[in-house]
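[scheduler] slot 2 assigned
[scheduler] job type: sequence-to-structure, two independent chains
[scheduler] chain ordering preserved from manifest
[runner] begin chain α
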Amino acid sequence: MAVDRDHVLRSAAALLTRKSTATMDEVARAAGISRATLHRQFAGRDALVRALEALGIAECEAALDAARTEEGPAGDAVRRLVAAIEPHAPLLAFLYSENQLFEGEEQNAGWTGIDERVAGLFRRGQSNGEFRIDLTPAWLTEALYGLLASGAWAVAEGRVAPKDFTHMITELLLGGARRPDGPAQGKHA
């Protein structure tokens, strides 16, 4: 019997986003397969996490494409991007906490491409006067990732309503990224 690898990955993602410490036995049960079958697909937890990383990268790339980040005002594009990523935010939050994905020289080049596309969106917003120029595109990108992960965890724990996810993230991020209309507020020492 052929194993549907995509089904196994999505089952693993659904479980691990709720219980990041789940064992390979629990992952196999969630996917409806034996532990031996799971190990034939993924030699161990690290191999499974690496496969989930590839899925997460593909989902982010698809969200970036769907959001049409090069069209219209940059603020609107950020809103479209957060809305497009929302269904995948739990997986991204799980991956965000998996340190082995970001250690050493072996970081997946897919993340670099995503970083460049998101930073390019913020750079465009700065160039057209929508966003502040005192915050780097790299920092705005990292802030977006942190808010996406925090939002996913808050929704999963029932502290935030799922319908508020996109609004809360975009309003907090864009409220801080927007160039002030009036004179500079206060200066920090």
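[runner] end chain α
[runner] begin chain β
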Amino acid sequence: MDILTVATEEFADKGFSGARIDEIAERTDTSKRMIYYHFGSKEGLYRSVLEAAYGGIRSTEAVAELGDLPPLEALARLTEITFNYHLEHPEFVRLVMNENIQRGSVIASLDSTRSRNDSVIAMIGRLIERGVAEGVFRDGIDPLDLHMTMSSMAFYNISNRYTLGKIFGIDMDCPDTIARRRQSVIHTVIASCRR
């Protein structure tokens, strides 16, 4: 198995402190020495895992081809992409939660993550400008705020699915529940932007 794939699972499941290089080495049929040779340290491997995780969501957003869609459809599509990415990559959510427990100690040092995030905020800014110009979005929407709103609603459905399921007696993995939540999130984001 690929080292980054296994390391992603280990760090997502156990956090930085709990993940063990020897377990990653064993699962990938390699040696600790080779992992340290390629990544320098446990933190170096963790940095690579975070870069790949954030790169995955940003790459998915970047190829969305929203420019050809009318603004409301483009916003709905971007929200759906964000929701689906979180749903399909729960390890991303767990990595982000773990990094927040560490107070963002590693993510702050990743230049590639900052540039990728800047590009998605710029893309959302262009979408907002088109929507305002066409009279379908209200004035004053901040691209970063909109991004955080979309991300937080998509994130919450994964980060809290077990507690929500237990507290409210719902199956958060049920296709009908997922479809209903996806539509609710899309509706909420569009309603927050609509003129």
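[runner] end chain β
[qc] chain β: The chain has a mean pLDDT of 91.
[scheduler] slot 2 released
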